[in-house]
Amino acid sequence: MSFDVVSNQIKNRKEDILAELRQSCEKNTAIGIFTKDTHELVTTGVTRIVETPEGDYLIMLREHDLHGYPVERPRLLLSNIERIIHFNIDYDDPQYVQVRKKEKFKV
User: Rounded mean pLDDT of the chain?
Assistant: First the structure.
């Protein structure tokens, strides 16, 4: 994969981030989210986007990441998202559903 392809998948501008979040919500695609406060990467899907009275957006994420681990903060404000990575994969891709099922039953 070339640098240009990867750089096109990373979005830094607020408008681009919001567009990718909406696409994840509408098409059930996976997305990688870097938050400003923790600088951690969460790979999951978006379930809902709500505009706040303050003009921000509340982003509601799936309860589990792609690999089945619980998402610690399933609600984020758009203003706290540093950048996102667009993935060309459905959140419900059979490969990842299998991984999530295995993780769910670990002891």
Answer: 88
The CATH number assigned to the domain holding 43 equals: 2.30.30
pTM: 0.85
The total of other beta-carbon atoms located within 10 Å of residue 53's CB is 5
60-75 burial string, b = 16+ CB within 10 Å, else e? Answer: ebbebbbebeebeeee
Q: What is the pLDDT of residues 23-66, one digit of tens each?
A: 999 999 999 999 999 988 999 999 999 999 999 999 999 999 99
- The partner residues of 58 in beta bridges, in order of sequence, read 50, 77
Q: How far apart are CA 106 and CA 20, in angstroms?
A: 32
Q: Say how many domains are in the chain.
A: 1
Range of the domain at 86: 3-104
